[in-house]
Specification:
Length: 469
């Protein structure tokens, strides 16, 4: 009897052991909605319950939270906003926070081939607050992001920043598919001092460039004061004409001023996040392909406005003539059309021919000018630009709202007619000596040796070249 009972118990245990995982999975298989700062995060991977803990897809979570997410083929995942950095190591089943290993095991699961972390671990990180509603099947994640970004940027712009120094470095590489001739590496370091009242600027840059087997090093200096804009290429000082001075100053200041860059970029993109910590704000920026095209179109318009009077019209007229010439060359004609054209040419007088040419040129200018300008604006579409990565971070002192540092990584591919060019950039910059820089003065030696650039002669030369063609 006892043996028979033991047999029944063993059978029951076996049945239960097979049924238990199924029952557990059935009870906990329901997915949870993931909401980050009021925005529902949709995607193939969804949060779900496992052994009493909600697991959250790490990639989607941190991307929505404004972090930079980088995957490596070796089974590693990195997410960062530079203040908070997490490294997920699948091989070592380890999560590190700001370089320090934690007790959290990773991965907890690889459901749907995704990377998941627990809601409890996320809740322990600085800047994250997690609440789980089993009744509503929802995971609510609240971050330390500033909600009104516009108001924050306006507050930054109003900060009493009258002068500062900056050190910037740019590491850029460019490669073309199937061609080593067009590969280029460039490293540029820049030191800058600036005051705002009065507006004065000094910049010194060193650039080392390698293109194929050729290499070049160049050192430049620049001054801007009420006396004008002066620039040296290491051998000769030049003074820019008045019509270019303001535009060049604006471009130079925007390049080195993180606040101005934020204000400029904000008009073209939604991917700005501001994180608030105890002593600093962290501002991150991302960009999509469409946002990049919009920004570049406006940049092209700005560049066109910087050209001296006359240059833009020469370029446009030349483009019109070339475009119409190419179209005419491609137009097919029948034998009747050829004979008719020949007969017309024989009957026409020299005066009529000249008049026809003038009329045709005027018609070309009227009918094609708008199209050519549109063509120039659609160059970016022709290039088929793809932003693989764009992530820029600015660290701001919380007490003064002065920028402390900036860093960025960009990776862009441009394709046209089967050729692809890849451009990668790394930028680093630090800011110091706030309100401790005296107004810059142009040295007397520079004032004496500077040669004023005359764009009038260059414009005339281009006009003659266009007329000859």
């Amino acid at each position: 009897m006892l043996r028979k009972l033991a047999t029944w118990v063993l059978a029951f245990v076996l049945v239960l052991s097979f049924a238990w995982p199924s029952m557990t999975a059935s009870a906990e298989d329901g997915t949870f909605k993931l909401v980050v700062d009021g925005v529902e995060v949709e995607g193939y991977e969804q949060s779900f319950m496992s052994q009493g803990t909600v697991l959250i897809p790490a990639d989607d979570l941190f991307q929505e939270a404004g972090f930079n997410v980088t995957k490596e083929a070796s089974g590693k995942l990195n997410v960062t906003n530079t203040y908070l950095t997490l490294d997920f190591d699948i091989a070592n089943q380890q999560i590190s926070v700001n370089g320090k290993a934690t007790d959290e095991v990773f991965p907890l699961t690889l459901r749907n081939y995704g990377n998941y972390i627990s809601s409890d671990f996320l809740d322990s990180l600085e800047g994250f607050d997690v609440t789980v509603s089993e009744e509503e099947q929802t995971v609510n994640v609240t971050t330390n992001r500033v909600q009104d970004v516009d108001a924050f940027l306006e507050k930054m712009m109003a900060a009493d920043l009258q002068s500062y120094e900056a050190k910037m470095s740019l590491d850029q590489s460019m490669e073309a598919t199937g061609s080593e001739e067009f590969s280029m590496n460039m490293l540029m370091d820049m030191d800058m001092s600036m005051t705002t009242d009065p507006v004065t600027l000094y910049m010194k840059s060193k650039m080392a460039m390698n293109m194929g087997e050729e290499s070049e090093e160049l050192t430049t200096e620049a001054y801007f004061t009420e006396e004008g804009f002066f620039q040296s290429d290491g051998e000769q000082w030049m003074k820019f004409p008045a019509e270019l001075t303001d535009a060049l100053l604006e471009a130079s200041m925007t390049q080195a001023d993180p606040v101005a860059q934020l204000q400029l970029v904000k008009a073209f993109m939604k991917g700005i996040h501001v994180f608030e910590y105890d002593d600093v704000y962290i501002i991150t920026q991302t960009m999509t392909n469409e946002e990049f095209k919009t920004m570049m179109n406006d940049a092209m318009a700005l560049f066109s406005g910087m050209l001296p009077v006359g240059v833009d019209s020469i370029v446009t007229e030349n483009a019109v003539v070339e475009e119409v010439t190419e179209e005419n060359a491609k137009e097919p004609s029948t034998e009747e059309a050829v004979e008719e054209d020949a007969a017309t040419e024989e009957e026409a007088t020299p005066e009529e021919e000249t008049e026809d040419v003038v009329v045709d040129e005027e018609a070309v200018e009227e009918d094609n000018l708008e199209d050519v300008e549109l063509d120039m604006g659609s160059i970016l579409d022709m290039l088929d630009i793809n932003i693989e990565k764009y992530f820029v971070v600015t660290v701001v002192d919380k007490a003064t709202l002065f920028p402390q540092s900036t860093s960025g990584t960009t990776s862009i591919k441009m394709s046209m007619d089967g050729e692809t060019i890849s451009i990668k950039q790394l930028i680093e910059g630090t800011f110091s000596k706030f309100n401790d820089v005296k107004p810059i003065k142009v040295p007397a030696e520079v004032l004496e040796k500077a040669v004023e650039m005359d764009f009038g002669e260059e414009i005339e030369a281009v006009e003659e070249e266009v007329a000859t063609e």
